[in-house]
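Why do we care about 3D structure at all? Because function follows from shape, and shape follows, mostly, from sequence. That is the central idea of this module. The next example makes it concrete: a single protein chain, its amino acid sequence, and then its structure expressed as C-alpha cells.
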Amino acid sequence: MRSNPAARAARFLIPAFAMAVLAACSDKQPVAPRESGPRPQGVPPRALQAFTCTGSREGGVSCVPVRDHSGMGSNVFLGGTRIKLTSSNVNYDVGTEILRFDVTVQNLMNEVIGSPNGTLSDPDGIRVFFYSGPTVTAGTGTIGIVNADGTATFTAPNQPYFAYHEILTKNQVSSARTWELHIPVTVLTFTFNLYAETDIQNLLVINEVLANPGGSISDTNGEWFEIYNAGSYPVIVQGLLISDSSGTGRRPYHVISASDTIWSGGYATLGITTDTTLSGGVPVDYAYGSALSLANSLDAIKISRVYGTDTLTVDRVTYASAVISAKNGISRELINPSLDNSNVDGANWADASTTAIYGSGGRGTPGAQNSAFVP
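And the structure:
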C-alpha cells in the first residue's frame, strides 16, 4: 500500500534496531520517519526491538538497543522510543554466586502494551526473553538464569523469559521483578541479548470517508475510506477485517488479503477498485470490491481484528445524515486523529476543502494529511 499500510495486533516482539521516532509538528499531522536496518538472522518479521546487554559481577548489567545513541546511564536497560527496562538494587552474593537485580518495564509508545485493545489482558503478559546468551566474554565458567518464569519458543526453542502481567499505557512503568543469574566467581564479564514480546493495541483511525462519489462516478466504483496509524508501531494489514452496516444490517466481514504495512504516521486508502479510470482518480491502496457498499445515510464502517475465536473492534465510525456526510463528491475528513471519530456527522469532522481536489474533480485528500486538519 502506498503510504505504508495496516494491522494485526496479535503478538508482537519489541526489539531495538528499529527505533522509529514519532514526530509531532506544530502544523502537521504526526508522521514518523521510515524504519530501516537489518534484522538479526532468524528473527521473525514482527520483531520490533533488540537489545545487547553486558555485565560483570562488580558492575551489574547494562542493556542498550542495538543502535542506541541516547547516552543513557548503565541502569537503563532498554532505550529507544518503544520500551524501556530499568535496573535497580543490584547485588552479587559471593557465597551463592548469584547476581540479583530488579527490573521494571516502561511503555514509551502511544499504544497500550500487554493488551490487544487496552482492556483485555494478554494472558502471557509482557515477556522479556533471552534470544542469545548469557555468554562469558572474560574469565571462565558457565552462567545460568536461576529464576526465569519459564521457557518458550520465540526465535528458538527453550528460551528463558521473565513475565510482567500488567497492562501498560503510554509512559507507565510496571512493578519491579527480581532477576537472578548464577555467575561463578571465575567469570569477569558477560553478554546476552533480549527481546520483549506481548500483545499490543492497534491505533488505526478511520480518518476520511467518501460515501457519495457524485458526478459521473458511480457508487459502485468511487466509494472509499482512509485509515491513519496514530500509533508508534507499524501495523500489518493482512488478516484485518473490514465491514459496513447499513439500515438493513451489517454485511459480512471482509478479510484483507494484502500483506503491506501502515507505518507510524502513515495512511492507507481502501476503496472499491484500484482502477483510477473507474474511481474518478482516487489512488486506492487496497480494493475490497463489493464487500462494502456505503449508504448515503445511516451506515457504519468498522475495522476489526481476529483475537482467539472472537473479533475485537479496532475502530468504528457511523453517520446518519446524507446532507452532512454524503455530499456529492465531497469527502468527510476528521479534523484531528486524536479526537473522537465515532460520529462522522459531528463537529470533529468537516468537509474536504474546495482546494483539495484529486483525480477528475473529487474533493478529498486520500492517502495524505486532511485538508481540514487542525493541530
